[in-house]
Design goal:
Layout lengths: L4 H28 L5 H18 L15 H19 L10 H15 L4 E2 L19 E4 L2 E4 L4 H19 L1 H20 L5 H10 L1 H7 L5 H18 L12 H15 L7 H17 L5 H22 L1 H6 L1 H24 L14 H22 L8 H14 L13 H29 L7 H16 L12 H4 L2 H24 L5 H4 L1 H23 L10 H11 L4 E5 L2 H14 L4 E3 L5 H13 L3 E6 L2 H8 L4 E10 L12 E12 L7
Parallel strand pairs: 4-5, 4-6
Antiparallel strand pairs: 1-3, 2-3, 6-8, 7-8
Helix pairs in contact: 1-2, 1-6, 1-9, 1-10, 3-6, 3-7, 4-5, 4-24, 6-7, 6-8, 6-9, 6-20, 7-20, 7-22, 9-10, 10-12, 11-12, 11-14, 11-18, 15-17, 17-18, 17-20, 17-22, 20-22
Amino acid sequence: MRLSPGRFLARVTALPAIAVSAWLLVTFPLLALGAFTPLLSAIFGIPAVVAACTLVPRLIPEPEEDRAPWWPVVLVLLIVVVFAAVQIAYHAEALVIRRDPASYAMYTVWIAENGSLPIPRMHELIAGNDPALSYQSLAHYERDDVIWPQFMAGAPLLTSIGYWLGGLTGMLVTTPVLGALGVLVLAGLTARLVGVRWAPLAALVLAVCLPQQWVSRFTYSEPVTQILLLGGLVLAYDALSRRSGLTERWGRTHVLAAAAGLVFGLALITRIDVLRDLLPVVGFLGLLLLARRGQAVPMLGGLTVGVLMGLYAGYGLSYPYLEYLSDSLVPLLMISGVVVALTVVATAALWRMGLPQVWRVRWLPNAVAIAAVLLMVGLALRPVLWPDYGHGSDFTDQWVAAVQEMEGLPVEGSRTYYDFSLYWVGWYVGLGSVLFATFGVALVLRKLAQGRLAQWLLPAMLLSWTVVTTLLRPAITPDHPWASRRLIVLVIPAFILFAVWFTAWLTRYCARASAPDRRALSASLPAVVAAGASVAMIGPTVITSAQGIMGYRQDVGTVAATENLCASLPEDGSVVVVDSGMASNYMPLIRNVCGLPTAAMNEPVQEDVDRVVGEIHDRDRTAVLAGPEWRPLQELTGTEPERPFRVVAEMDPSTLMEPPTGSWGFEGDVWISVVPPDENTR
């Protein structure tokens, strides 16, 4: 059978989620078993990915839009390729832990090199349990003589592929490819829900959006999560395109439904807050059961498997991190339990009645549409009506106060700026996109309340829920571009999708309205409307990115400096960092990348230094002291220090009340002193 443009695009845009989920499904158990090695991952992972990418796309049905041309397909692929090329060219080299990207990078390096968690302290190779030493650092928690890295395992399991293929640089250029695949998946979702011809517009707006470019240049987890959640919507759409009864024999739609549920659930391996995003999927499954749809059971089974793996990823391999998040995670778990319980109870209570026929309530469609618009208006007025305060962290309060002082703002360290979250979206995709999306979601919800647009039900439930809950409480340090991470997984794609849908609806409306009028001006009205709306969406997005932080690379030179540092350290070295500030930033780099036992001495006293150095030498190892300056090292050891790590580079700024522009400077220095055995004491 000839592969039509629509079906080709449908298959291609489903591949990223299929491939990523197949890899996670195989490699996460390997990591849990302590066997995440290149050989075993290749033996089990590559066949799984190849089989999934070969078999599952064949089950995707022919799109309803069967006369789509090839030009939208070519444009989408061109946008994706150019996006990947640009982000690879501008990829960051964030290896020194200051914020989250380097934390993910260090996580990746450890599991790629060692294949297991937790990280041993290796204190027996330094000075045992000497009270002067500590082993905890930024994004690394010391618990019971071992160290647990922060965050979830999903993204590092994927960036490990790049590390195995190309070392540190290979790891750093993996995420740009994942970010490009996220653009591709959104194009596929748009093609299904709006039309193939509108897919390039959605792909282009997301591709030029600053947060999408920014997170794709770092080793963040957001691009992977974006692929899985949007990909789950793509596969769910395909699975539900054909009606199937509960008692019907399982076929391709059931397999696609199971795959969609699994993809949704596996997203929890990448980010624990995906639990919140999955709550509408639980409610939707209840509706599917009430509708007697055969896809409900396999989708529920796939979701359950993925969620159980995600919970083990959190509580089995990242428990100290979840412990740190307990103030927000415990309420989320309780809410999740309530949602599951209510769904079960409601489904059982309504089982004989079937789906509530809400479309018979005449006033409901208009009420829902008006409520959606009023909610957006409320979010826009929120800074005036409900300014938000309270980070719950003294460190965050101090940082926000420092940025406020730099920007000339009133110094209120407890200010969260969450009430400006809708304005953040406007910064990055423009006022036009925000307005079009508002009208779009109002119309979509109105049609759903009328019993129409059934294919929009799950996307509308999931995206609307995530947009509202995220904008109400982004739960992130509010300086940009860092805060934009919270928007890029689903919030910004949701605004783009609804805005493109409204643009398509308005274009068709104008075409119908002008059809009786045969004049050339009237005939051109739909094209003018489509072009004008597209410019209103793309123009501000491009301007924000062009004026922002896209013209430089962050932390350039860190890879070369790291390689030089590792080469300068003796193979039998035991490293003690004698500066508390530097220890938090550089200990994981020395331990995870250079592979040497590393500890920190937060308050170096000569007596403690002599004792620890002596204990290292007693173990027939070479003592190495490291610090950010040469003079303290020389005073402590009496030896001439050397500086193998030196980086002077650009880094991203921090802004609170405007989109980020320009760059700040970053300087990183590591001085080391190798202490010979005969110089234990002075």
